[in-house]
Structure formats: structure tokens, C-alpha cells
Amino acid sequence: MLGISVARAESGRLGKVEFLLQLGKFGLELFCMANAGPPSQNPFVSRNREDAGFEEELWQEGLGAFYREDDETALTLLLEVVESNPKNLRAIFLAMLCAANLSDEETLEELYGVIRRKGSRHPYAVGCEAVRAMFYANYERAEHLFKMALRALPDDIDLNIGLGILYDQNGDGDKSAEVYRRVLELAPDNIRARISLGMSLAISGEYLSALAEYEYAKRLDPSVENPHQHLGRDFYSEGMIAEAVQEFMIAITEEPDEPTAYFFLMDCYKRLGQVDEALDVYELIRERFKDRSEELCGLYQQFQLFQEAKPILEKLVQEHPDDVELLLQLSQVCQETGDLNTAIKVLNRALDSFPDAFLLWSNLARLYYEDRDYQKAVMAARRAIQLNPEDGEIYGLLSDALLFLGKFEEAEASAREMERARDRAWQRYQQRFAGKDETGDSDQ
């Protein structure tokens, strides 16, 4: 067993990934407990693990999710596959690729440890080394390793997609487009490659060609994002707001019951200074989706409409009082709206259930500090340090709080420890950038 929880399937609420990745392994297990529900409602619990087809079913679903660019769900399923069969190197490679895309360093390192212990030089094992190098921004080494793996398996779709993602990350759009075209020669109906090619084309300014790829993907799977919405987001990210407005309006016309395009359109109008139009879209959202407020909660947070998100989260917390992820979101929204007292109370409530969660204590320390309750900030920061002495930022907060309390020697000592923690973090990064493990050994 990897010891990695697999409860990642839900992705509807904003902040879930960010919160849980900071919580690390604890957060994933926590999410599992908070969201599992009765066995009949949880596909990962209700499946018959003794069924001979269980692993194959997980594998096909995980592979399908990966090819649809649903990396959260794919990682959930692929981790289950790896736990069932740690010899499945392809599953480990794809899981590492998903973890890298989700910035999940802890899971990536655990999976790398599995590969390391095997000592395999299979092309997928080399691909795992490449993903790790890519994650730590050693793009030259990652490219070398991907190409080494592809020399052994030149027609492998997954390794080629990995190389394409590398080129996406280092900003080489022409190379990424070339790789995705190669994938589509091998598998014309690969949705991920279609969408990724479209994004590469959009970055290069070939917007009509990008739209054609998004439309092709939509024909393959009607559940993927509306092509005009996707192109609108491309324009939006490039600062081409007027062009984005046109695409979001088309997306709304084609799929009027999908809320995301409305929020982007509203934000575009705000950025263009068209306040009346933005308010009109806001009122339309409130009216059209009034019975789907919980579904909109993440979008409200994404577009910083915290006052709208707050009552929804309060209602959800009443219905699910032990859901720590909801409590974290509510605390964050309360902080954003200036309600520090409630934000603090909500975090303390979460700590009643999970007293050893570093993220809860570190966030609580920051709230106390913002509320100028420096004594309690010191208490919470010290507890957070006990749980994770390698987090450099919390030492800085502790040092500042001690200064306000006039404890200058303790503040200086905390500042020195902060520098030592940062030095250790930098050394770890340098080792991993060079492709070494914690002992300093390298495979290459």
C-alpha cells in the first residue's frame, strides 16, 4: 500500500485542491472521511474489491479521466490501481503526471519512492524521472529523459502526452503542438491531445484552428467544456477581453444552463469598465441559477464574490458540521469579508475534530495575528511548528508576533530558525532539481 488516500473525486468547490494539498496526506484522508457518505453512495467503497475485474474497471475509468483532462478524478482512480497493483508502471507514471499537474508534491514524491525502490529502467520508470524533473523545473533534464523513454517506445501515447505537457510548461508552443499532432496521428480521438493542441494553437495566435480542435473534442465527448467558452478563456488569459466577451456570449447562447460563462462574461464587463452590463449579468445569474446556489459557491469564490458565497457556505456547514474542508472555506470567506471573529471560531471548531492538522493551526495563527491577538498567535504558531518544523513561513509570523509582545530575544531566535528552515528547503529543492533522492543518490 502506498499510504495515500484516494478520496479526490469531487471537484465542484473552489479551493478544495489548494486546501487539501496543503493539508497533505492528512487532508486527503480527511476529505475521504468528510465526503464518503454511506457505502452505497461512494463508488470507491461500494465496489467489490474481490471482483476479478475491479482493477481493470478502475484502470479504464482512470485512463478515461486522464484523457478527458480530469486530473483530480484520474489521480484518485490511478492511486487505487497502484495500491491494488504496485507493479503497474504505466499507472504510476500517469499518477505522477496528474500529481505534477495538480502541484501535489507529496503524492508525487511518494510515487517516485515506489519507482525508486523498484530500481526499474523500464521506459515508464524513466518517464517518472522525467515528470519529477519537470515538476522541479529542470526542463532540460526532463526533455532528455522523456526522449530517452520515447526512443524505447516511440509510439506510446502517454509518454508523448507527457512530453507535450513539458513543452507547455516551458512555453515552447510550437514543440508542444508538434507532439500533440503526433499523438493524434496515433489516436485521432484522444480528447486530451485535441484540447491540448487547441491550447497550443491559441497561444500561438491561431484562434480559429484552436476553436476547431475544441469543437472536435466536444463532438467526441459532449461533457467537455463548450468550445467557445474555452476559446473565451484563452482570450481572457491573454488580456483580449473584448474578444473574450464575444466567445462567452456565444457559449451562453449554446449552453444557457451552464453557469461558468456567465461569471466570466460578468468579469469581462467589469474589466472593460462596463458596470451596468456587469450588473445585468450578475442579476441574471442570481435569477437563472437561484435554485443552484450550492453549485455556484465555488464560482462566487473564484470571482471574489465573497458576500454571496458566505451564506451558502454557512448553510452547507449547518448541513455538514464535520466537513473540515467546508469549515476551511467558510473561515477563508469570513476573513475576506472582514469577519475575523467568525473566521477564528470556525477554525477552532475544525480543530476540535482534527487537533493535529498543521494547516488549521498555521491559518489560525495568521488570523490571530491579523486580529492583533499576538499572544494567541504565538501559541498557535508554536503548535503549528511542532506539527511541521520545516515550514519556514510560520517562523516569520511567530517572530513578528513575538516582536509585538516585546520578546526580542525569542523573536530573533525564531528568525534564525526560519532561515535554517529555508536553507533546508532550498537544499531539498536543489537535490530534487538534480534528480537526486533524499540521500543524494541519482538514477542518471
Automatic annotation (TrEMBL):
InterPro entries cross-referenced by the UniProt entry: CellSynth/LPSAsmb/PSIAsmb, TPR-like_helical_dom_sf, TPR_rpt
SMART domains, A to Z: TPR (SM00028)
Gene3D superfamilies reported for this sequence: Tetratricopeptide repeat domain (1.25.40.10)
Cross-referenced PROSITE patterns: TPR
Keywords recorded for this protein, A-Z: Repeat, TPR repeat
SUPFAM superfamilies: TPR-like (SSF48452)
TPR repeats by residue range: 157-190, 324-357, 358-391
Record's keyword annotation contains Disulfide bond: no
Claim: Cell inner membrane is one of the keywords in the record: no
Record protein name field: Tetratricopeptide repeat protein
